[in-house]
Write a structure and sequence with these properties.
Strand order of the largest sheet: 1-11-8-13-4-3-2
Strand content: 15-25%
Helix content: 10-25%
Radius of gyration: 18 Å
Order of helices and strands: HEHEEHHEEEEEEHHEEEEH
CATH topology: Jelly Rolls
Number of strands: 13
Oligomer: single chain
Number of helices: 7
Length: 272
């Protein structure tokens, strides 16, 4: 899909007012089907530090997500690093961005959802036991791109996203927001959920969702017989915090070696 200057202006305006925007039919469905097929083929029977599992309702161990997913597929890597995508992210966020992280969320039937949370807002400790400030170690601005590889519906656990301005009710900067969240977690306290109005995000293959990291979001469990597979990439504003601008390498290196909860294999949930 190619946009005119006026279309880009409208998309950018909507995004900067609300913090998120849905673009319908951005990709051809057949192209997305090929990406999905390639990812599944290349990750079949694979294991590693960035494979995450969960127990379904019937107590079966199922794959929850794979981080660094583009390492398994040249076509996927080409997609999320493409000029088309980077240009769109730059134009609507009005910033110069670079890939920060990428993952594939599976959510098979019976798969759990995610609690309402705000990305990157938590404390963690590096391998030297130094306390770090979530994603803000790497940049001051992040933009998420959601590409559904299958239909995302209410029944199979679609995303719910709140406007960026709702998060400002908690604080006006990284620290003040983080201090209002659950301890050692980016999750929103139950008493504060009334401050957020969440919009359900129903997507078809070919659609995309772009949202700012400060937009609170969550998803419910998959109560259908269909999986809800999402290719999820995050971009950060380029800056001088990381040498050689290799933000993705720095993030995953820290994620693997942080003094974290080995069960979750995550930067977050680190005890302070």
């Amino acid at each position: 899909m190619i946009f005119t200057k006026n279309q880009i202006k409208k998309i950018s305006t909507y995004y900067n007012v609300n913090g998120f925007v849905i673009i319908k039919n951005f990709f051809k469905s057949r192209y997305i089907e090929n990406i999905k097929h390639n990812l599944l083929l290349n990750t079949q029977n694979k294991k590693g530090n960035f494979f995450y599992y969960e127990n379904s309702k019937d107590h079966k161990k199922i794959l929850r997500r794979i981080e660094k997913i583009s390492d398994f597929s040249k076509s996927a890597k080409k997609l999320i690093n493409s000029t088309k995508i980077i240009k769109l992210i730059n134009e609507i966020s009005i910033k110069k961005n670079i890939l920060f992280k990428d993952k594939l969320n599976f959510k098979y039937p019976g798969g759990a959802g995610y609690m309402p949370h705000i990305d990157g807002h938590f404390f963690w400790k590096d391998k030297h036991n130094k306390l770090e400030n979530g994603w803000s170690k790497y940049s001051n601005s992040f933009t998420n791109l959601v590409i559904p590889l299958e239909k995302s519906t209410v029944k199979n656990g679609c995303l719910y996203v709140a406007k960026k301005k709702d998060t400002q009710k908690l604080g006006d900067n990284w620290l003040s927001i983080t201090q209002k969240l659950e301890k050692n977690s980016p999750n929103i306290k139950k008493k504060d959920l009334k401050k957020f109005i969440f919009k359900k995000i129903v997507l078809n293959t070919g659609d995309i969702l772009i949202f700012d990291w400060k937009c609170a979001h969550y998803s419910k469990e998959n109560n259908s017989n269909d999986s809800r597979m999402i290719f999820y990439s995050t971009y950060c504003e380029m800056n001088k915090k990381i040498n050689n601008n290799d933000f993705r390498k720095a993030y995953y290196r820290d994620k693997e070696h942080s003094k974290n909860n080995k069960k979750t294999k995550s930067l977050q949930f680190t005890k302070i």
